[in-house]
Each structure stands twice: as structure tokens, then as C-alpha cells.
Amino acid sequence: MKQPLVDDGRSEQARARWQRTEGIAAAVGRIAAVGRAPKTVIAKVDLFAIDLKPSTVAGGVISVLVLLGTVIYTALITYAYVHRDASQSNNMLWSQASRTLFPMNVTCVAASCILSNTYPGASLPTPPSPAEACLRLGFNETTVLHLAFSNDPSDGLAILFDPTATDSAFPLGAGVYVSSEMGCDGGPGCVDDIIIMRLLVGPGLTLANYVRTNNETEPAGSRARLRQEWFLSYVSDAHSVSTARPCFAALSGAEVEGLQQAPTDAPCLSPDSVG
């Protein structure tokens, strides 16, 4: 025979505690759900999300091809960089404002030549040596004169010579030739990438343009690293002897007879620096 359960008040207390615990757990669950909601929404709208997938043969082959292409492309870029052409830069400097002197190598090809290099109309900070004001050269003798920029025909180099006494190795009427260093790449007369051009000067007015090339791509000590070029332009056939120069004024009538003048003016001297 079963005995009736007796409620002494303890079972009621336990039931109340259980209910309170269930209420707390439900509240925590609702809070967690609220916290997960934004992440769930973001995961659904994120277009860049990537699901992890297991490795496959196709994926491995594609990865190997991409890596191989990257290696080949890197090798080609490296080869092109190593074998690229040397970089070049040009810096042109004009001498008109500097009033600098530039060397001219002059050789007499007549029986004799009288040279006068003066600048009475120009204000030069460093004029040519007084010895250049009056020089005498015999056939095949050479001297180095120093010319500067000038637009005055009375300035610069003037030469007296007998045009009928030109050496047979040169055209009749020539008095001197100016040596000009021109760049070359092999061939007759080319030495150390330099060939000497002989620029003949005859009676009349000749304009001289100077270009100095500093080629830093040439090895140190090479003649081609620094080239000095002259470019001559025949302007006028006026060849009467001018007595304005003291050197010519001091000549006697017998010395001047038969001589003709070849003035050389330097209106545009342009040193060009190439790196």
C-alpha cells in the first residue's frame, strides 16, 4: 500500500530555483542571438567571402602553371634590365656669356703665314696671350691659338699668306688648315674613335663654330672622351690686307705685296657636354 507524498516545503523551493535558472538561461540565449544577428547578416551580404574547399588536381595544375609563368616573366624582365642600353643625357652649354677661350690647332700650308689673334672689340676676362697677336709660321708648321666668341669682324684670328704659294698637296689658294676632332667608328684614319679633319681656310672671311663634346660613356683616358671640333663657314671673299692690326701695320710694303688676308671670326662657340 503506497503512502501519500508529504510536501514539507522543500520541493516547492527547489521548483522555484529551477524556474529562475531556466529564466536566466533563456535571457542569455536571447542576448547571444542578438549578438550573432549582425554577423549572420554580414556573412550573407559579403560578396568576397570564400568557402574553404579541399585540394583538387585541377587546382594544383593551375597553381603550378601560374608559378611557372611568374618565374619565366621575372627571368625575362631581369634579362632585359641587365642587357638594356646605356642611358644617355645631353647638357648643352653656350659660351657666349662665359667669354671663355677655346683652342684652335692651325697649320700653315702656304710658303709662309702671318697670324694675328686679337680681340680689341671684346671685353674678355682672360684675353689670349700677347704672343698670339703676331705669329709667323713656315710651311707645315703648327700652332695652337685661343679664340673667343665675338660678333665683331675686327676680332678673332686674321691670317696673311700668298695664295699662289700653296703646297701642291693642297688646293691652290689655301693658306692654313684647322684640325678638327670628329668622332668615328672604324675606317681609314680612325684612331681611338677619333679622326682628324683638315678644314682648309682661303682668302676671305670665314666664320668658325666650336663644339666641345665630353662623352662620359667612353673609358677614362680615351681620346674620344673629350673631342674638340671646329666647323668653318665661308662668308665673304673680301681679302684686302687690313692695317688696323698692329702686327700687319708693322709690315713693310715688300712683305705685304702679294699677300691676301683670311680673317676668321668666331660668332658662335658652343661647348656641348654629353653624358
Question: Could you characterize the architecture of this molecule?
Answer:
The chain crosses the membrane at residues 57-82. Keywords: Membrane, Transmembrane, Transmembrane helix. With 275 residues, this protein is α+β, with helices and mostly antiparallel strands. The protein has a domain at 90-274. The protein is 25% helix and 31% strand. It has four helices and twelve strands. Strands 1, 3, 4, 6, 9, 10, 11 and 12 form an eight-stranded mixed beta sheet that branches. Strands 5-2-7-8 form a four-stranded antiparallel beta sheet, with no helix packed on it. The longest helix has 36 residues, at 10-45.
Please tag this protein with its features.
275 residues; alpha+beta; 8-stranded mixed beta sheet; 4 helices; 31% strand; rod-shaped; disordered C terminus; membrane; transmembrane
Class from secondary-structure proportions: alpha+beta
Low-confidence stretches: 4-8, 267-275
- How big is the Rg? 47 Å
Strand proportion, as a percent range, falls in 25-35%
Arithmetic mean pLDDT: 78
Head-to-tail CA distance between termini? 122 Å
**Helical stretch tally:** 4
Strands, count = 12
Task: Report on the biggest sheet.
Answer: 8 strands, mixed
Please give the share of residues in helix. Answer: 25-40%
In N-to-C order, the SSE pattern is HHEEEEEEEEEEHHEE
| Cα shape | rod-shaped
Transmembrane segments: 57-82
Keywords: Membrane, Transmembrane, Transmembrane helix
Topology:
Blueprint (H helix, E strand, L loop, with lengths): L9 H36 L11 H26 L7 E3 L9 E7 L3 E7 L16 E4 L3 E6 L8 E6 L14 E8 L10 E8 L3 E11 L10 E11 L9 H4 L3 H4 L3 E10 L2 E3 L1
Parallel strand pairs: 9-11, 9-12
Antiparallel strand pairs: 1-12, 2-5, 2-7, 3-4, 3-6, 6-11, 7-8, 9-10
